[in-house]
Amino acid sequence: MNPASPAQQGAxxxxxxxxxxxxxxxxFLCEILEDEGFTTHACERADQAWAFLQKRAADVAMLLTDIxxxxxxxxxxxxxxxxxxxxxxxxxxxxxxxxxESSGVCYPVSFIRKPWTIGQILDCVxxxxxxxxx
Length: 134
What we know:
CATH architecture: 3-Layer(aba) Sandwich
Structural class: alpha/beta
CATH superfamily: Response regulator
Radius of gyration: 13 Å
Strand order of the largest sheet: 2-1-3-4-5
Distance between the termini: 23 Å
CATH class: Alpha Beta
Number of domains: 1
CATH topology: Rossmann fold
Number of helices: 6
Helix content: 40-55%
């Protein structure tokens, strides 16, 4: 049985789990999102993000992940696991090389192609959060 969604538990819906293997991009993403009032948790590998989700999924408002990264899991596998366990968490996938379909994402996700602008990534984050609410 899945734990209750953040809305059911009254958790703040502002934590974004950011998964990106390039440290500069990861830091930049977190800075952009924090400037917009979000709280972020940064992971350089999907494996780390999976461990975080297993402990704190009820606190996560969104998963923002790159597709291609080292480790046991890539962003596509992480997206699939996240949706299977916590289907209320919106997922935004980014890549400069693949699409969700070509990488093996099995569920509907939002997608942004790299390179993106600050305005584009913020629009995609807001769009994914809004689509999950309604």
